[in-house]
Design goal:
The protein is of the alpha/beta class and 197 residues long. It contains nine helices and five strands. The protein is 42% helix and 12% strand. It has a five-stranded mixed sheet with strand order 3-2-1-4-5. The longest helix is centred in the first third of the chain and has 16 residues, at 30-45. The chain is globular, with a radius of gyration of 18 Å.
Length: 197
């Protein structure tokens, strides 16, 4: 398992669900944790990035209720485009379960392992589903964070949602003609996929 991808997944899960405990299914060394956390903290502290207006972020909201082939195709495309796959939560474990197990336990996380091993950026973020009232997956979201205008007024979050069981390339194609920052991000992500439909 790619420890860097797994650590980012685990970190995103713990940020959105801070009271959850986790029992690691694979031993981690202190060097693994320092290496990945150092890399993430450097990205967050980069002064060049901090002074730029942030580009909109893209997410593909998915669920294990989707057909397996669709989920695998989206994982492959999302990995190549650099877009995270976002789940509302962990799947329920099948079979006898121990009610004393923490929510994030090796059994509940095993469903994510093939996606993480494929290199996809997998995140848990139930707030994203709530914020945009997402009831149908998959859904591509390109979201621009709120910012202050020249007169000091705070502008709200702007987002575009493309729902439906379509390829990531098709969903991005629906947005590439836009003349705003969402269209710019869609064109950039679409270029990463090349001719792939």
């Amino acid at each position: 398992m790619n420890k860097s991808h797994f650590f980012k997944f685990l970190l995103s899960a713990l940020i959105t669900c801070p009271l959850i405990t986790f029992a690691a299914s694979e031993p981690w060394t202190i060097e693994d944790v320092f290496e990945v956390s150092s890399e993430l903290s450097q990205q967050m502290r980069d002064p060049e990035v901090a002074t730029q207006k942030p580009l909109p972020q893209a997410f593909v909201l998915v669920s294990f209720s989707m057909p397996e082939a669709s989920l695998e195709r989206l994982a492959r495309d999302a990995k190549d485009a650099g877009v995270p796959l976002v789940f509302r939560g962990v799947p329920e474990t099948k079979g006898p379960s121990d009610s004393k197990l923490p929510l994030l336990n090796p059994q509940s996380l095993s469903a994510f392992q093939p996606l993480i091993e494929s290199g996809a950026d997998v995140q848990l973020n139930p707030e994203l589903f709530s914020e945009f009232n997402i009831r149908q997956v998959p859904a591509l979201i390109i979201k621009e964070e709120s910012s202050a205008s020249a007169d000091g007024c705070v502008q709200g979050t702007k987002a575009v949602i493309v729902p439906g069981d379509v390829t990531l390339g098709y969903a991005l194609d629906r947005l590439t003609d836009r003349k705003d920052s969402v269209g710019e991000v869609a064109r950039t992500l679409r270029d990463k996929l090349g001719n792939r439909q």
